[in-house]
Amino acid sequence: MAVKIRMKRMGRSHLNFFRVNAVDSRSPRDGRVIEELGYYDPQNKDQAKQFVVNIDRCKYWLDRGAIPSETVSSMLKKAGLEHKSLRLPKPGKPKAQPEEKKEAANA
User: Fold this and answer.
1) The pTM of the whole model exceeds 0.85
2) Does the residue 91 lie in any domain?
């Protein structure tokens, strides 16, 4: 079972509220949760109360191999929890080599 740390959308229309959870990677976005770790309230004017998370429990899950979503990863870094992010390259065509490298390869 792969564990991810991601947000679960709550609140009503146009008043977003998110809970930060540790979930099984196969469960849907608003599905079953293993553990609730905190919340993110973008409507709150006070920056300190906008993102509240239990750092110790997040660290516990990260140490056990949980993979945070990109959004949660950036928020955890802002909150002071340094961790190794696993950004995978996006699928698609490989990037073309610059002209200098092509000329050097042909010579």
Assistant:
1) no
2) no
